[in-house]
Design a protein that fits this description.
DUF3619, 172 residues, rod-shaped, mainly alpha, DUF3619 family protein
Length: 172
């Protein structure tokens, strides 16, 4: 027989031994059952039926185990867990990486949005700070651009005022 290795739990080995012994006894009884008298065969049949009934009752009373309750024991052997509930802090710790990922994505989106606004402001500042060539003032498109914002109070060349000033010039 094998000796108990440090990685093998003792209860598993004992269960295996009991099972092997039971199989040997059952095989021996099966061989000798033909030579027994009818009274003994009847008593053995009744005992067998009682044992099966007790085994079925024990199986029905035992809690069912799910795949989530499995755990590793020893050297990569798989055993069912004791049915312990997972603590709440472990469940929260499992959600922590998801929360960090979501926070990181939101931070990246905000920083990209801010970078787009900053680069557009730099471009506008650069364009507006450079002096315009004199030909730009005579360009009809530039005048159209200046007249685009009629709601701006600082814009003195709104279309309504321009028409009035043209009418005033023509009447003089």
């Amino acid at each position: 027989m094998k000796k108990n290795t440090p990685g093998t739990p003792l209860p598993l080995e004992a269960d295996a031994r009991v099972t092997r012994f039971g199989l040997r006894v059952a095989a021996g009884l099966t061989e000798q059952s033909e030579t027994l008298s009818g009274d003994i065969q009847e008593r053995l049949r009744f005992a067998r039926e009682q044992a099966l009934a007790k085994a079925m009752a024990a199986r029905a009373a035992a809690p069912t185990r799910t795949a989530s309750e499995t755990r590793h024991v020893g050297n990569a052997t798989l055993a069912l867990g004791g049915g312990e509930k997972t603590p709440r802090w472990r469940k929260a710790a499992a959600l922590l990486p998801l929360a960090l990922l979501l926070g990181g994505l939101l931070l990246i989106q905000h920083s990209q949005w801010y970078e787009q606004i900053r680069s557009a402001a730099e471009l506008d500042t650069e364009m507006l700070s450079k002096p315009l060539p004199p030909a730009a003032y005579s360009d009809p498109g530039f005048r159209e651009y200046l007249n685009e914002t009629p709601n701006d109070p600082s814009n003195a060349n709104s279309p309504d005022e321009g028409e009035k000033s043209d009418e005033a010039k023509s009447s003089q």
